[in-house]
Amino acid sequence: MKKLFFILIVVLGYFAIAHATEIRDDMTYTGEHIYNGVIMQRTLGETSGTSLCFEGLTENAFETCFLITDPTADRVVTFGDSSYTAGATNAHSDLVTITKVTAGTNTVQDAITMDISGADTTTGFGAGVVWKLEDDTGTTTEEHGSIDVVITTPTSTTEDSDMVFKHMVNGDVTETFRLVAAEAADAGDYFQFTSNTTELNAEITTGMFKLLSVGTELAGLGATHEYWMVDAGGSEIQAEFATVFTTITTAQEDVDLVWRQNDNGTVSETLRLVADADGTAEGTRMEITSRSAETNDVNDLIVLKASGGTTVADFGVGIDMQAEFADGVETACKFASVWTDVGTGSEDADWVVSCKDAGAVQEVWRVASGGNAVLSGVAPSLTIGDAGAEDSILIFDGSAEDYHVGIYDTNDDLVIGLGAAPGTTDNIVISDSGTSVPTVTLFGHLKDTERYTTEGGANTLTLAECGLVFSDADGTPATTHTLPAISGSAGCEFMFINASDSADDDTVESPEGDNIVCMIDVDNSSYSIIDADKISFVDTADTVGDFVICVSDGVDWFCRGVGEATGSITCTG
């Protein structure tokens, strides 16, 4: 009877606890206790903590438990007024699904808040989410990635923090991407990629953008990156960079790189790198579009700048044009602008063209700052015309008159003349005579040879004066013309005219002597003398108009004199 009474008391006790609506006093249980499917298990001496477990709908050997570890102070876990579902049906399902019911419709709602504090935090303090995965051993899990928020400036009211992404790279969890908060008010936020690679001599992809379209792609499909900035009207697009298909045929695709930027309030295309490598058109090229309202001035489409510190003459900037040939790709020609004077306020620069000649790049053409053009190289030459049936003319543009030199194609003549049009006012015409010697035709008249007047004294001539005519006026003392030294004078010619009835004998003399060969015609009589020293206009017999012409063959001076009266010109030696 006592045993039945004890059993009744125990059953009533459990029943009272199971159906109790209020527990006013603390109760302590040791061991395992079950309340309508709720299992509370606590073992004396256990170090892991206390478990609160739930049987579920089916009573079996499997339960879901909350493990409460040994606290070191009073702790409170608060469940907010929201619902969520936790669980997993396979390895790739969500481990936690959080559903928050809110009346907010146009603001971001915090689904999870991580509140981490640390005493006297400094740069580097932060909070993170870590992902651990099981490796191929199937026995352990280890960190494979994390997202960290790291303080870079801990100062109150000016805090900065970076968002750092790390993941497993070759066995180590390494930072690969960071969203950087600029630590200065005048700097901008940015993102940086970190590629951890052992590659030393190849390109490494640090970013990749993919556009996956649905349907049939057509030319014009592309991907665009936009750049927004705040202006007076707010935040709006200021520039964009696009990759655009121009040919979309498989294995023949062409893509243009297009840069557009804000120009007078409209985002317009300004630069395009054109891919056209099918061999039927121009090939890959660069196109620059200038959106300018200028109608009567030059627009600078490309500006090349080179800074060399303290520059000196020959510093410059150039364009190197390289082309493929049998042995590869190398420089074919260069264009350069080169300083020749770097003095402030007196700068001069030349335009220089260099091209490959016999395997080496050599200067072939230079236009100096003063407008002087110089052709250089091994055998410089200038060709005007392309063998076509048209006039090829070089025109000289003067302030009052123009002149031309070139080929008049109608008659196949080389012409020199007045004006810019050949065949109308030609003054010299060189025609094909059918022989090795062309026919030269002159139109107009030849101006007299330059003439000098002498009035007594010594007149020592030089080779630079060959071809001059001297008129001897009346003067005292007599004029003495000394011919140049005979060496190197071949072809040199002079003319001496008695322009007045002089008061003394005017003479023409050789500096060496004995090398004048004379032929004198006076008063219808002729005579000759060799190895003479000088020729004289005799003041007692000469008349105005008497003359002497002397020509050198490099050994002797051959002089012919013509006088009206007997004894007017003499040759002595």
Task: Describe the structure in brief.
The chain has 573 residues and is mainly beta.
Can you give a write-up of this model?
The chain has 573 residues and is mainly beta. Among the domains are: 30-69, no CATH class; 144-193, no CATH class; 222-288, no CATH class; 333-378, no CATH class; 392-442, no CATH class; 451-572. 3% of the residues lie in helices and 45% in strands. It is built from one helix and 38 strands. The chain has one helix spanning 2-18, and strands at 31-35, 38-42, 50-54, 64-68, 83-86, 96-99, 126-134, 141-153, 160-169, 172-180, 190-193, 222-231, 234-247, 254-263, 266-274, 285-288, 316-325, 328-341, 348-357, 360-367, 373-375, 392-397, 402-408, 413-418, 426-431, 439-442, 451-454, 457-460, 469-472, 479-482, 493-498, 506-509, 516-522, 525-532, 534-537, 547-552, 557-563, 569-572. Strand 14 and strand 15 form a beta hairpin. The longest helix is centred in the N-terminal third of the chain and has 17 residues, at 2-18. The chain is rod-shaped.
Write a concise keyword list for the protein shown above.
573 residues, mainly beta, 7-stranded mixed β-sheet, rod-shaped
Give me the secondary-structure topology.
Elements: H1 2-18, E1 31-35, E2 38-42, E3 50-54, E4 64-68, E5 83-86, E6 96-99, E7 126-134, E8 141-153, E9 160-169, E10 172-180, E11 190-193, E12 222-231, E13 234-247, E14 254-263, E15 266-274, E16 285-288, E17 316-325, E18 328-341, E19 348-357, E20 360-367, E21 373-375, E22 392-397, E23 402-408, E24 413-418, E25 426-431, E26 439-442, E27 451-454, E28 457-460, E29 469-472, E30 479-482, E31 493-498, E32 506-509, E33 516-522, E34 525-532, E35 534-537, E36 547-552, E37 557-563, E38 569-572
Parallel strand pairs: 27-29, 28-30, 29-31, 30-32, 33-37
Antiparallel strand pairs: 1-2, 2-3, 3-4, 5-6, 7-8, 8-9, 9-10, 10-11, 12-13, 13-14, 14-15, 15-16, 17-18, 18-19, 19-20, 20-21, 22-23, 23-24, 24-25, 25-26, 31-36, 32-35, 33-34, 35-38, 36-37
